[in-house]
Structures are given as C-alpha cells and as structure tokens.
C-alpha cells in the first residue's frame, strides 16, 4: 500500500495558496497605512488646515470670474474666490480669502484688479496690488477697492471714432475750409514770412548804423586830450555822439519790441535770437548812460570848461 509524501502534496499547491497568510497581511496592512496618508495629503493640498483671511471686493461686471478663481499677489497664488453674488444696486459682490500669513501684505488702500492671465485669453483672476508700506493692514471682512480691466472693444471703438474725426478734419483743410485751410490755401504764410524777412533786414541796417555811431564815439574819446577849448569840443562831441547812440539804442529796442510782437507763429529758435539781440541792445544803452553819468567824465568836462574861461 502506497502513501503520499506531505512535501509532495505541499509542492503541488498554488503559490498564492501556499503564501495566503502573507497576502492577507498585505491586503490589510496596505490600506491601513496608505489611506491615512492619502487623506492627510489631500487635506494639505486643499489648504484645509490653512488659516484664512476673508475679504470683499465689488465690481460692476464680473466678466469671467467664477468660484475657485485664484487670488495672487505679485504673481504668487495666495488664495481663491469663495463666492459671487449680485447686490441690490446690480453690482457684483465678490468674497475671497487669502492666507493669514500673507494677510499683512494686503492694505486697506490696496486695489484688487480683475484681469486675465494672458491679457486677452485665459482664466480670470484677482490681482491684489498697491497699498503703501506704512498703510494699515486690511482687517477681516473689509471691502477693498476694485478695478476692472481695460475694455478692448470700447478702446477700439474710441480709436475708430477719433480716426474718423481726423479724416474729416483733414478733408475740410484740403477743401480750404476753416482758418487753417485758408492759411494753407492762400499765400498768407508766404506773405507773413516775406514781411518778417524785410523787418529783419531793416533791423540789421539799423544795427550797422548803430555800430558806425559807436565807432565815431570811440574816435572822439581817443582824441580826448589835455585841458583847453579843444578838450571841451571833444567832450561835447563825445557827449553828442553818446546821446545819439542812446537814442538809437532806445529806438532799436522799441523796434525789437514791435518785431517780437509780430513773431507769433514763428519758430521758437528765431524768437530766442531776437530776444537775445534785444537784451544786448538794452545792456549797451545802460552802459552808455552810465558812462555819461560817471563822475570822472563829468569832472573832466567841468575842469575843461573852467580852464576855457
């Protein structure tokens, strides 16, 4: 009579059946270890354990903002939108929250801008910016100032209207309508330029005469000799030239004043040149008057007259 060996019977059993105790232990141990880890990880990822600071903002239009939209400060996600609702005035009240550890960065005068991530496409989000460094921090439940994004359709419409207005103005100018059209259609500008050039020529002629008088005065001053009748005559001649030169300078200054008044519409560079000439002429006039009134000049004339007597 033959008997079966226990070792042979054990080897004939399947692997999972032979190690069923190990598999049962793993089946119990793996869920017990992994499930709590997954729960903790999910809570951490969902910011369930984070402390929050709740704030409000109001907009006339919520655009594409929705619950769960991100809230960022300088490009860093610090919170999200909790709810949106319409108030009695028809505006949109947005309730959002930020992490308590960054709440001190949100000031009472901060601005909450509604914008898209990629300017014209992408999800809508809230961007908190502004606020002074020493401004008080926003408290729980405060309502911050909101700012809507740039409306591209309205901007394009305004630009189109402006371009149409410019085209209409250019057409009127080319047709000779209005003051500018009259100036461009007639020879008014050419006439004004020619008149201005003529006045400049007259001014230069007067300056040449003025310089000639100055040369004559210097010649008289050079011939100033010792005491006597000749000295008196020389001084009188010098005084006469000085008076004439002062009068010419005064007339030239008056002429420059009139010329400056007629220079409206002339390029600023020419106006500055005329003003500089005017200042130089006035300085020369003051210098000559001071020379006439100088005590040495008066004393020399007085002594020459006494010697002549």
What do these coordinates show?
The chain has four domains: 6-45; 52-149; 153-185, no CATH class; 188-308. The termini are far apart. It is built from nine helices and seven strands. A seven-stranded mixed barrel has the order 1-4-3-2-6-5-7. It has helices at residues 6-12, 15-18, 20-45, 152-174, 178-185, 188-222, 229-261, 268-292, 295-308; strands at residues 52-59, 70-73, 76-86, 92-99, 111-118, 121-129, 143-147. With 309 residues, it is α/β, with parallel strands linked by helices.
Task: Map the helices and strands.
Layout: H1 6-12, H2 15-18, H3 20-45, E1 52-59, E2 70-73, E3 76-86, E4 92-99, E5 111-118, E6 121-129, E7 143-147, H4 152-174, H5 178-185, H6 188-222, H7 229-261, H8 268-292, H9 295-308
Parallel strand pairs: 1-7, 2-6, 5-7
Antiparallel strand pairs: 1-4, 2-3, 3-4, 5-6
Helix pairs in contact: 6-7, 7-8, 7-9
| Terminal CA distance | 185 Å
Oligomeric state:
single chain
As a whole number of angstroms, the C-alpha radius of gyration is 48 Å
Number of domains: 4
Within the largest sheet, what's the order of strands? Answer: 1-4-3-2-6-5-7
Summed over residues and divided by their number, the pLDDT gives a mean of 72
- Give a quick account of the main beta sheet: strands, pairing sense, barrel closure: 7 strands, mixed, barrel
Low-pLDDT segments: none
Helix/strand-derived class?
alpha/beta
Instruction: Kindly state the percentage of residues in helix.
Output: 55-70%
Task: Sketch the topology as an H/E string, one letter per element.
Answer: HHHEEEEEEEHHHHHH
β content, as a range? 15-25%
The count of strands amounts to 7
Work out the helix count. Answer: 9
Q: What would you call the shape?
A: elongated
């Amino acid at each position: 009579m033959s008997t079966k060996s226990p070792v042979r019977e054990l080897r004939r059993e399947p692997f999972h059946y032979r190690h069923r105790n190990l598999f049962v232990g793993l089946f119990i141990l793996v869920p017990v270890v992994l499930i709590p880890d997954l729960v903790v990880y999910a809570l951490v990822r969902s910011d369930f354990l984070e402390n929050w600071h709740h704030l409000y903002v109001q907009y006339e239009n919520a655009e594409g903002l929705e619950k769960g939209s991100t809230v960022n400060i300088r490009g860093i996600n610090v919170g999200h939108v909790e709810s949106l609702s319409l108030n009695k005035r028809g505006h949109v009240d947005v309730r959002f929250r930020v992490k308590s550890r960054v709440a001190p960065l949100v000031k009472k005068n901060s601005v909450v801008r509604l914008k898209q991530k990629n300017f014209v496409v992408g999800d809508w989000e809230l961007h908190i910016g502004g606020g002074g460094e020493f401004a008080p921090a926003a408290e729980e439940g405060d309502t911050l100032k909101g700012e809507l994004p740039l409306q591209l359709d309205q901007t394009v419409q305004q630009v189109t209207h402006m371009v149409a207005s410019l085209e209409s103005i250019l057409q009127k100018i080319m047709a000779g309508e209005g003051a500018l059209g009259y100036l461009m259609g007639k020879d008014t500008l050419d006439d004004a330029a020619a008149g201005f050039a003529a006045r400049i020529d007259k001014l230069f002629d007067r300056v040449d005469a003025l310089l000639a008088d100055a040369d004559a005065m210097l010649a008289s001053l050079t011939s100033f000799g010792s005491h006597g009748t000749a000295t008196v005559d020389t001084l009188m001649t010098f005084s006469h030239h000085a008076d004439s030169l002062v009068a010419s300078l005064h007339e030239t200054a008056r002429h420059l004043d009139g010329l400056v008044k007629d220079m409206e519409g002339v390029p600023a560079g020419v106006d500055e040149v005329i003003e500089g000439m005017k200042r130089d002429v006035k300085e020369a006039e003051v210098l000559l008057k001071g020379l006439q009134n100088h005590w040495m000049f008066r004393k020399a004339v007085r002594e020459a007259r006494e010697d002549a007597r």
